[in-house]
Amino acid sequence: MKQSWKVWSCAIVAAIFVCVGAVLPVQAASFNPGFDPASTAVTLVNLNNGESVYQKNADKRLPQASTTKVMTFIIAEEQLKDPANTKVTVTQNALNQIPDSSFVTVQLREGEEMSALNLMYCMLVPSGNDAANVLADYVSNGNISNFVEQMNEKAKELGCTNTHYTNVFGNYDTQHYTSANDLAKIYQYALKLPLFKEITGKAEYTVPATNYSAARNLKTSVKLMDKTSNYYFAECTGGKTGTSDQAGYNLASTAEKDGKNMLCIALGAPSVQSGQAVKTNGAFNDSRKLFDWAFQSLKQQEVLPKDKAVSSLPVLKAKDKNQKVSAVPETAYAALLPADAANGNIQTNVSLPQNVTAPIKKGQKLGTATVSYNGQELAQVNLVSAADIAQYIPIYQRPWFRIVVIVAAAVVVVVLIVLLIRFMRRRSRGHFGGRGGRRRRGRYRPSGRHGYHHYH
């Protein structure tokens, strides 16, 4: 059932997800949407680059109700090889950990058999508490506490600092909480996994009949996707609700229009006031209004094109004494900004050394550029070299020159040795009577005067 390779692969995805890239958000933006959300905490994220464009109490710890099930899905999905073909049998152990009948959503029964995939639909579409427990019970081999521990470990892995779980479906507990920023990280991670976007994007879904039940017709709890609801928002592409008296109304949802892909987390809109139920779901209203504001008032703007030089630096030890290298963004930076940002409200502060020393490789980091809007820092972008710059090396320091000198020296040495050998040989022949040497004393020398008699 559990696949270690899949766990490792998902861990890698998580590592990539939390790793720092070439564009670093400096702080979350918070543009003015023109109204004060009823929700206690909100964050609106541009999914195209992961930056927030509006926040309210985004790091405040709050009860999370059934938005918990996003993490329950993550842990289950990472450990199930093939949810569609994994048959799960409902155990009494899983059902016993439901507080009371008011928490039972899809009416699962002990001994009922259902695929893990359909349990995921039951958990996420109508927010089935019993389905969440059954799925966690199966994945953990009956140890739901261990499953919860894995949820907490995954939250830390994703960089969540204001999240803790005590159960898998969102039952209220003082130690069961999250923040808007943390839930945004968790939801974005879930979107990268198979099935999540497909399941949470269903307004309706039919679970086939089981051994204990006729077919179940599921309807989403996300009213932004319900065409019969007053909260319907056509651009909504998916979401997960959470509601309780203590947590209030909560919603994590996505919407897309004209290439803008947004995620809104709205937590803690009042569901009870003065002992009376609040009929208006503030989380639904806030999310819909924030999406609408972003689509109408914010514009995707290219702030730093990738190949456009931001500045240039003098290069020391280059062949040309006046050599300069262009500093360009490592990656293009674009952001959702108010439409008036194009009128000069965007500032770019460059941090670069006074000069650099050759050699320089194309793409080598030279410094950073910090982008701000009306004094509010948005992101920091790495600035890199636009070209290779070779270092100037004097002739006498170049490798080939050294080789020539060594070869020339070797030739000279060889010539000197040859000349020395020839000299020594000549000297040796002259000393021992060789041709050209002096004659020895006492050698017989015939002459006409003292020679033999002449006959006439």
Task: Chart the SSEs and their pairings.
Elements: H1 4-18, E1 23-25, E2 41-46, E3 51-56, H2 69-79, E4 87-89, H3 92-96, E5 113-115, H4 116-124, H5 129-139, H6 144-157, H7 180-191, H8 196-200, E6 204-207, E7 216-219, E8 236-244, E9 248-257, E10 260-269, E11 272-273, E12 276-277, H9 282-297, E13 298-304, E14 311-316, E15 324-329, E16 333-338, E17 346-351, E18 356-357, E19 365-373, E20 376-385, H10 399-431
Parallel strand pairs: 14-18
Antiparallel strand pairs: 1-20, 2-3, 2-10, 4-5, 6-7, 8-9, 9-10, 11-12, 13-16, 14-15, 15-20, 17-19, 19-20
Helix pairs in contact: 2-5, 2-6, 2-7, 4-5
Q: What does this molecule look like?
A:
By secondary structure, the protein is an alpha+beta fold. Among the domains are: 4-40 and 49-218 and 292-298, 3-Layer(aba) Sandwich (Beta-lactamase); 305-385, Peptidoglycan synthesis regulatory factor (PBP3), Domain 2 (Sandwich). Helices cover 29% and strands 25% of the residues. It has 10 helices and 20 strands. The strands form 6 sheets. Strands 1, 14, 15, 17, 18, 19 and 20 form a 7-stranded mixed beta sheet that branches. Strands 3-2-10-9-8 form a 5-stranded antiparallel beta sheet, with helices on both faces. The protein has a two-stranded antiparallel ribbon with strand order 4-5. A hairpin with a 7-residue loop joins strand 14 (311-316) and strand 15 (324-329). Helix 2 runs parallel beside helix 5 (129-139), helix 2 packs across helix 6 and helix 4 (116-124) packs antiparallel against helix 5. The longest helix has 33 residues, at 399-431. The protein is elongated. The relative contact order is 0.12.
